[in-house]
Specification:
With about 130 residues, the chain is α+β, with helices and mostly antiparallel strands. It contains 2 helices and 7 strands, in the order E-E-E-H-E-E-E-H-E. It is globular and about 35 Å long.
């Protein structure tokens, strides 16, 4: 996702695991991926109003493989692009969820689909943005 640089912005990375993903590997859709929860592993808390307001920021957001080396806002390679988020929604008390639409011919698509169904702790989404906290 693109972010605006401001003097008061802080690099922010959060990671979530989605134990209830349903994958259609042929069509390239992972349904019900968790995007953001009310409390992060980093100890940050996200209010309901914050998460509801963020739905539009995550809708259509690009999803890349791994994080960039060095500067979190550095340019990404086309080969890193895995897909995008659609149907982003707030689920009461649980956070933001959506559908990850991905290229089923991407170099890691088969591995991702298998892990999402059989070893969901191996995959997760994280956002890597500049934000005010």
């Amino acid at each position: 996702m693109a972010a605006t640089l401001t003097s008061s912005a802080t690099p922010l990375t959060e990671r979530v695991v989605s134990p209830s993903i349903r994958v259609d590997a042929t069509r390239g859709i992972a349904r019900n991926v968790k995007i953001l929860g009310p409390e992060s592993r980093n100890g940050r808390r996200y209010t309901e109003s914050c998460m509801r307001a963020a739905v539009g920021l995550y809708e259509g957001a690009r999803v890349n493989v791994d994080h960039p080396e060095g500067d979190p806002q550095s340019t990404r390679s086309y080969a890193d692009r895995f897909g995008s988020l659609k149907n982003v929604r707030y689920v009461e008390g649980r956070g933001l969820y959506g559908d990850l639409h991905f290229n089923p011919k991407h170099r890691i698509a088969e591995q991702f689909a298998w892990d999402a169904e059989h070893a969901p702790a191996n995959v997760g989404l994280s956002h890597n943005v500049l934000a005010k906290t």
